[in-house]
Write a structure and sequence with these properties.
The chain has 409 residues and is of the alpha/beta class. It contains 17 helices and ten strands.
């Protein structure tokens, strides 16, 4: 996998507890213009979208990340737009700047996020009585120790204790500062003395914008079904993987393993699919369709068609097998790393890794048929089904590629 690693446009800065255990990370977004890692707030909602998409849909270097909360700072507008998907409090902590004015609309938005289980962090906070309502909602308050003398820090900390918030000392640059803040009663610590921010490496990939637009349009229909949404999303293999990757996050982790795209959409729920599709559409990274995508589409659709006619494998599972069988090549990762990031049904994993089980035999037969394997012979009763399936897959993949390229159908 190493040859395929790249910077994901993200860095992480560890946050430590009093025993110097890493308990969370702050996500730092780096645009293409950034030459160095810096602690800074996301400047736009675009930054927030990119940070969320990169963090929750990328494939990370094996073993490089622990499942710890991610602090992400967002704007007031982003919060009021209700754009954050319902990720677990174990996944995401909302970090906001101190505001000059706390509007009733902002408080209402924050109350809804807190009621939904999010933890709220106030950054670089200076106390004033008008912020009491905000402090009553917050769980953590960052304190920039560079901006206060040692004699000013203690009364500031005593004020925060009245609101039952956890104080975090940030910008700790040496041991003396750490020791002082530890004795003073800070519970969390962050700074270059403890650990410098590090770049995240992994494999980042994107979904086709046109397919996302079709998906968003379908989501506007109040009567749309998960099957109909799966039909749209399945036209983009990378979008298919992203939905599977998202549904396997801690918040959405289903009781049983996913064996179809429809099942993944049901697990997420239509509201959450809408939110994630919106974030994906806003994300700035886009790839052009290529021939490998076409090959994946043909394989997946043919598997689905043959399964629907032979009735030995569920068509949707057959489709996922077709997508997953070539997705490692598209994303530039080895298959074991891919399967480690999402929890698909055992039948799918066995099918794509060793052509095992009924789904594996179907996938193998489709692959052999498509490449014209001379030693492969179909039983006479299914030859016509495979022939029809292949031409149907060609038709459907060509149509889908036209959609991806923005052509009029």
């Amino acid at each position: 996998m190493q040859a395929h690693l790249k910077h994901l446009g993200l860095a992480r800065s560890p946050i430590f507890d009093r025993d110097l255990n890493v308990v969370a990370y702050e996500l730092l977004y780096l645009s293409d213009k950034d030459s160095e890692i810096a602690h800074k707030f996301l400047q736009t909602d675009q930054d927030a979208c990119d940070a969320l998409i990169n963090n929750f849909t990328s494939i990370y270097d094996s073993g490089s990340l622990r499942a710890l909360p991610a602090f992400i700072n967002v704007s007031e507008g982003f919060l009021r737009s209700d754009s954050l998907p319902k990720l677990s409090r174990h996944n995401l902590v909302v970090d906001i700047k101190q505001l000059h004015q706390v509007s009733p609309a902002l408080l209402h938005s924050l109350e809804r996020y807190v009621e939904a289980g999010y933890r709220l962090v106030l950054d670089d906070f200076d106390y004033a009585p008008e912020y009491d309502a905000l402090l009553n909602l917050a769980k953590i308050v960052r304190v920039d120790i560079r901006k206060r003398t040692e004699s000013e820090l203690q009364p500031h900390l005593e004020t925060l204790h009245k609101f039952k918030v956890t104080p975090l000392a940030e910008h700790i640059d040496n041991y003396t500062q750490y020791e002082f803040c530890h004795k003073l009663g800070f519970r969390l610590f962050q700074g270059e003395f403890l650990s410098r921010p590090t770049l995240l490496e992994g494999r980042q990939f994107t979904s086709n914008q046109a397919i996302l637009i079709h998906l968003l349009a379908a989501l506007q229909n109040p009567d749309v079904t998960p099957d109909e949404l799966a039909s749209v999303a399945s036209r983009d293999p990378q979008l298919t993987f992203k939905l599977l990757r998202i549904v396997n996050s801690a918040r959405y982790n289903p009781a049983q393993k996913i064996d179809s795209l429809t099942q993944a959409i049901i697990a997420l729920g239509l509201v959450e699919v809408n939110k994630w599709a919106t974030l994906l559409a806003l994300s700035s990274n886009q790839d052009k369709p290529n021939e490998l995508i076409r090959q994946i589409l043909i394989t997946a659709r043919m598997c689905e068609y043959v399964a629907s006619r032979t009735r030995e494998v569920a068509p949707e599972m057959a489709f996922i097998c077709g997508v997953m069988s070539l997705l490692d090549a598209l994303l530039g990762v080895d298959q074991s790393s891919l399967l480690a990031q999402i929890s698909v049904a055992d039948e799918i994993a066995e099918a794509i890794t060793g052509y095992e089980g009924k789904a594996g035999k179907l996938l193998q037969a489709v692959n052999f048929y498509m490449i014209g394997q001379s030693s492969f012979r179909l039983p006479p009763e299914v030859q016509e089904i495979y022939s029809e399936g292949y031409y149907e897959a060609l038709r459907w993949s060509n149509e889908t590629m036209q959609i991806m390229q923005g052509s009029n159908l």
